[in-house]
UniProtKB/TrEMBL annotation:
GO terms for cellular component: cytosol. Pfam families: tRNA-synt_1c. PANTHER family: GLUTAMATE--TRNA LIGASE, GLUTAMATE--TRNA LIGASE, MITOCHONDRIAL-RELATED. This is Glutamyl/glutaminyl-tRNA synthetase class Ib catalytic domain-containing protein. Keywords: Aminoacyl-tRNA synthetase, ATP-binding, Ligase, Nucleotide-binding. GO terms for molecular function: ATP binding; glutamate-tRNA ligase activity. Residues 4-161 form the Glutamyl/glutaminyl-tRNA synthetase class Ib catalytic domain. Residues 112-138 are annotated as: Disordered. InterPro entries: aa-tRNA-synth_I_CS, Glu/Gln-tRNA-synth, Glu/Gln-tRNA-synth_Ib_cat-dom, GluQ/Sye, Rossmann-like_a/b/a_fold. Signal peptide: none annotated. GO terms for biological process: glutamyl-tRNA aminoacylation. Residues 112-131 have a biased composition (Basic and acidic residues).
Length: 162
């Protein structure tokens, strides 16, 4: 298996110590396993993303001696590809459109907090007909994760994660 890690900073300012740490860990992990690290610029916050911040991130990584393979990837320019994959997940039955309002989501968070539970979306749109959606409400796409039991993954760094 070929290891490909990525570092995905948001270009809304200078690279901070936490971002540098993440870049270093990802770079070391890739190098240790004979793999490569990609740089993906999370420039979807168009109002706050700047070219100066992108340049500063590149310069900071070079100064730290952390290189990446290939051209940096712009998240924004790949938005249509991501939307295409999301639509395919819906078409395959692995995701669904959720029409919850910000107010409904806030209510879920508050209820969970009051009950001492961790915040979790309640799945109210999981099996509903999108025809029931409120007029004008823009949906988000949610993955259909198991509703019962615990989801377990095997992570190469952290081991078994639940």
């Amino acid at each position: 298996m070929s290891i490909i890690s990525r570092f995905a900073p948001s270009p809304t300012g200078f690279l901070h110590i936490g971002g540098a740490r993440t870049a270093l860990f990802n770079w070391l992990f890739a190098k240790h396993h004979g793999g490569q690290m990609l740089l993906r610029i999370e420039d979807t916050d168009r109002a706050r993303s700047t070219k100066a911040a992108v340049t500063a991130i590149h310069e900071s990584l070079h100064w730290l001696g952390l290189d990446w393979q290939g051209e940096p990837i712009s998240q924004f320019t790949r938005a249509e590809r991501h939307a295409e994959v999301a639509r395919q997940l819906v078409a395959d039955g692995n995701a669904y459109y959720c029409y919850c309002t910000p107010e409904e989501l806030a209510e879920m968070r508050e209820k969970a907090k009051t009950e001492g539970r961790s915040t979790r979306y309640d799945g109210r749109w999981r099996d509903r007909d999108p025809g029931d959606a409120p007029t004008g409400q823009v949906p988000v796409i949610r993955l259909k994760t198991p509703q019962q039991n615990v989801t377990v993954i095997e992570d190469l760094v952290q081991g078994t994660v639940t």
